[in-house]
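We store amino acids, tokens; thus:
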Amino acid sequence: MSKQKLIKRFKHYYPIEKFHAFVSFPALFVYLLYNYSFQDIFFLLYGVLTCIIILIQGQHYWKLKLNKLTNKPFDQVKNINFFKNSKKLNWILIGLIPIILFIQLFQNNCEVTHKFLVGIFLNLFAILEHINYYYRQLTIDKLSDLKYIIRNKKLKIASLAKDLNENEI
């Protein structure tokens, strides 16, 4: 892909990820807190918060990729360390999901509600976002992604995963 096409692509990805990380998911978090009892949506809020944290990492990554293509300076070492530490944090957050799930079930006397099911969806979404950034590209948003999967019968290695492996963004 040409440099200009990549710049165009990242100029698209970065604002969308930034919007979700700083507007849509935080707005959902506030809406839920305002309209429901914290006790009833603890697991759901945990999923939203985990998504926010992972989306913040994603938007930061796309910003750095855009900066690199447009020759804007950034601290390579600091950002590689940020993503390595973020990956560890994500694993801690993901590891806490079953504990938070059981606390919510215990709190609600094992009653599975619609809000609980939405919480499962949001926590799974957070896990998939983590995989999408740090392991395999799950987002198939262009024809070349689909062709790659058909040709190789596997998902692409995530761009951030490659960059972390090479210690360079």
In short: The chain has one domain: 3-166. The helical segments are 3-35, 38-69, 76-107, 114-134, 143-152, 159-166.
